[in-house]
Each structure stands twice: as structure tokens, then as C-alpha cells.
Design goal:
The complex is a heterodimer of chains A (310) and B (136). In chain A, helix 5 crosses helix 6. In chain A, the strands form two sheets. Chain A has an eight-stranded mixed beta sheet. Chain A has 310 residues and is of the alpha/beta class. Chain A has a single domain, classed as Ribonuclease Z/Hydroxyacylglutathione hydrolase-like (Metallo-beta-lactamase, Chain A, 4-Layer Sandwich), CATH 3.60.15. Chain A is built from six helices and 15 strands. Chain B has a single domain, classed as 2-Layer Sandwich (Beta-Lactamase). Chain B is 25% helix and 30% strand. Chain B has a five-stranded antiparallel beta sheet with strand order 2-1-5-4-3, sandwiched between helices. In chain B, a hairpin with a 4-residue loop joins strand 1 and strand 2. The longest helix of chain B is centred in the N-terminal third of the chain and has 11 residues. Chain B starts with 7 loop residues before the first helix and ends in a 7-residue tail after the last strand. The chains are: A alpha/beta (310), B alpha+beta (136). The interface between A and B is medium-sized, with 21 and 17 residues.
């Protein structure tokens, strides 16, 4: 399984010279499986550039965690949407209020958009994520509701023996300290249990979190505790606050590694996601390709590998 | 994969109960008592950590609810059970045995918790102590 980060920012795009290393695009992750099939996780602004790489793809599958703008904003600029021969399937959270298509159409419609969903040249299908596991090709997908504002899913994706959990917007410590909760009372626990790679919300520092309780996101300390509690073999911290510069995120990465070590974990198995990261995930643990930086996302000792984008 | 985690709506309900000072308990779809808050602990005379989760027959035996005439109630005899069986809210006047001072007259309201798939996964039951003149 290969994972590529096309957008790791939360809330709103945050471009600028102080954001270049971690990137300013919002949530979008490309996952490529053993049989070369692919899934796209979320359609934040990062999906725009990904769409240019998928120029010839006949089919595209997208899993949306929820419909906040930072997770769907790139959809209207996703090149495959404008190719008549392309079939796009989108899964997302159900709602008793309106269908997935109707809810997405509130964004892809006037006055916010010059085109309507029904005008997209591609063939597009909208599906509520099933309540039980389902298969997309040879891959097993499981969706579960997680603690965030509004209907929000996390995903667990299994390809052979390799598992990935993607929970980009998540506040599992809302209302109770994770230290005080049994496993059965922790949101997202089953999704993330024993995964080879966990991609998880880490929007705030611990100092910032008290002013944002209930906003649906995690502080660094809670993200680390959650990753440890579920037994994630590696964790990639994600959904960076738009106010956090590269310098700030470097400091958070160093703090994360130190605290992870203090929890008895290998500091090379924790990292902050950067736009352009390519991660090979295998059951024993992933290796990371980051050509531009010349060092691994997970620690600094792995030899750099070939990367198609920096 | 073996499931260990409660449904999100029950997790959030438990979080809610920890944040209010109205005595309240959380039960699952089978009537198992999953949690009660500190205000309920004060009412019942023992903490949840001390009592732990209880099957319906266990908490019925522990708290011994009786009706207005003092007759013992089974789960099916408490119209609060309707919140679980018919997904409807329910209201009752009951008395329960407390660990500290015998029986306590209560008003109870049960709210069913219905998950995204339309299936009831449990209920919140909140309690108000009745005064001697019957007011809460």
C-alpha cells in the first residue's frame, strides 16, 4: 500500500512562504494498492493537483470523511470531473436530512459555483458509506462515525495484511480525558486498532486546545495518546492548523517525537504529514520516500528513495 | 475484526452525562446499565466505579424500583422500558432504593437514542427527586 499526501492542512488553505514545507492545501490523501487500484481520501484543495496526475484514469473512487469545506473544496477543480469518459464514485456520511448528492450540490451550485453537479461531464455516483464493511475491488473498507462536528466518518482500509486508518478530523478526548476512558468508550478505537499506519488529526498544541474544546479536533497530546492506546504501529499527524507555520510545525514534530519516546515508543514511528510525502505501508511498517528533503518522514535516518514529487 | 468500541452515539451520550448535574443513567438497547453520572451516584449512594455495568436484572435488583403503591417493578413494568422497545420517550413516577437512606421518590424521563441507521442503541434516563408534596 502506498500513501501520498496531497494536502495536510486543516480548516482553510494556508499558502505562503512560511507554509511551503508542510504545504497549504487542505485534506487529500491518495492510496495505491497492490493491484495498482487507488482510493482518494477526501477532496480538499489538494485534490486539484492530484487530478492533473489522473488525467487518463477511467475510474476514480473518493471516500469523504465529511462535508466541511476543507474536505470537499477541491472537488469542483478536480480534472476527472470534467472528462466525459471518467466514472467517479464518491462515498460519504449519510444524513437523515438530505442525500449525499444533494448536500454536496449545495457547494457545487450557484452562487458558490459556476457549474451544477448535474452539469459535470463525468459520470458520478454518490453513495452513503455502508454501516458494515464493504469491498472496493480487492480492498476492504470500513467506515465508522467519529467525534467531530456534524456527521463525520473515519475509515479503516485493509489491503491484504496491511491496514490504514484515516481519521483526519477527530476529538476523541471531548468530555473526558483519554486516560480515564476504557477502550470501549473511545471514539475511533475500533477503526484504528493495531493499524500499520494511522493518519490522525493533530490540529492544536496542548496549550491551544483549551480555547478550542468542542471544535472537533485534537491536541498533540491527545493525538499521541490515541495513537498509543489503539496500538498504531506508526502515526502520521495531520490536519495542521492554518496558523501553524513550518517553524511551528517543526517544533510540534520535535515535541511529538520526544513525547512518543517518553511513552515508550520509537520516535521514528511518529511524524507530522507534509504535502508531497510518499509513504510505503507494509504490515511490518512503512518506509517513506521524500526526495526533496532527503530524509524520511518517519525519523531522519532512513535513506532517501525515489519520489515523483517533492 | 472483533468490535470493542461502543457506538459513537453512546460515547457522546456518556460524555454528555458526565457534563450535567441532573442525575442520569445510560442504558443500552437490552436495558444493560452502561453508566451513570456523579449526580446519579449521589442519589443512589454509590459511585458508578463502585457499581460497574449491570445487566437489566442486576440493576433492577440493586435499586429495587417500586410503584406509587410500593409494588416492586420489573423492567417491563417500568414504562421507561418503552424508550428501548418502541423508540418513544417515556415518563414515570417511581421510587427506588438508595444505599444511604432507604427509598427515594423520583420522577424519571427516558429518551431513546436512535442511531444513524434508525436503530435504537440505548436510552438516557434522567431523574428528578420529588418533594413531600409531590413536586420535583
Amino acid at each position: 500500500m502506498k500513501v501520498k499526501i496531497w494536502g495536510a492542512r486543516g480548516s482553510v488553505p494556508a499558502p505562503g512562504p512560511t507554509m511551503n514545507r508542510y504545504g497549504g492545501n487542505t485534506s487529500c490523501v491518495q492510496v495505491t494498492f497492490r493491484d495498482e487500484s487507488q482510493l482518494i481520501l477526501d477532496a480538499g484543495t489538494g485534490i486539484r493537483a492530484l487530478g492533473l496526475e489522473l488525467a487518463g484514469a477511467p475510474r476514480v473512487a473518493i471516500l469523504l470523511t465529511h462535508l466541511h469545506l476543507d474536505h470537499i473544496q477541491g472537488l469542483m477543480f478536480f480534472h476527472p470531473c470534467f472528462r466525459p469518459e471518467c466514472e467517479i464514485t464518491i462515498w460519504g456520511p449519510s444524513s437523515p436530512e438530505a442525500s449525499l448528492e444533494d448536500r454536496i450540490a449545495r457547494y457545487i451550485s450557484a452562487p458558490l459555483s459556476p457549474v451544477e453537479v448535474r452539469e459535470l461531464p463525468c459520470s458520478v455516483a454518490f453513495n452513503d458509506a455502508p454501516a458494515s464493511e464493504w469491498r472496493i475491488g480487492d480492498v476492504t473498507v470500513r467506515a465508522e462515525a467519529v467525534t467531530h462536528r456534524g456527521p463525520t466518518l473515519g475509515y479503516r482500509i485493509t489491503d491484504g495484511e496491511t491496514t490504514l486508518a484515516y481519521i483526519p478530523d477527530h476529538e476523541p478526548a471531548l468530555g473526558s480525558s483519554l486516560d480515564d476512558l476504557a477502550d470501549e468508550w473511545i471514539s475511533g478505537y475500533d477503526l484504528a486498532r493495531d493499524v500499520d499506519l494511522l493518519i490522525h488529526d493533530c490540529q492544536y498544541t496542548d496549550a491551544e486546545y483549551p480555547a478550542h474544546v468542542g471544535w472537533g479536533h485534537s491536541a498533540l497530546g491527545d493525538a499521541l495518546k490515541f495513537a498509543d492506546r489503539v496500538g498504531a504501529k506508526r502515526a502520521l499527524l495531520f490536519h495542521h492548523d492554518p496558523l501553524h507555520t513550518d517553524e511551528k510545525l517543526d517544533a510540534m514534530a520535535a515535541e511529538a517525537a520526544e513525547r512518543w519516546r517518553a511513552m515508550g515508543r520509537d520516535p521514528e514511528t511518529i511524524a507530522l504529514a507534509r504535502e508531497g510525502d510518499e509513504i510505503e505501508v507494509n504490515a511490518p511498517g512503512p518506509a517513506v520516500h521524500r526526495a526533496r528533503e532527503g530524509r524520511s518522514t518517519f525519523g531522519t535516518t532512513a535513506a532517501p528513495q525515489v519520489s515523483t514529487r517533492g | 475484526m472483533e468490535g470493542a468500541q461502543r457506538p459513537l452515539e453512546l460515547i457522546l451520550a456518556r460524555n454528555f452525562l458526565t457534563s450535567v448535574t441532573t442525575p442520569a443513567v445510560l442504558v443500552d438497547g437490552e436495558g444493560t446499565l452502561l453508566f451513570y453520572n456523579e449526580a446519579a451516584a449521589a442519589l443512589l449512594g454509590r459511585s458508578f466505579e463502585e457499581a460497574g455495568q449491570m445487566r437489566a436484572d442486576e440493576w433492577i435488583r440493586a435499586f429495587a424500583p417500586v410503584d406509587e403503591e410500593g409494588e416492586p417493578l420489573e423492567l417491563d413494568g417500568i414504562n421507561l422500558a418503552g424508550a428501548l422497545k418502541s423508540d418513544r420517550p417515556a415518563h414515570s413516577e417511581i421510587r427506588i432504593r438508595t444505599a444511604s437512606d432507604g427509598y427515594r421518590a423520583l420522577e424519571a424521563a427516558a429518551l431513546p437514542i436512535v442511531a444513524a441507521q434508525g436503530k435504537a442503541s440505548g436510552a438516557i434516563i434522567m431523574f428528578w427527586t420529588r418533594t413531600d408534596n409531590g413536586e420535583t
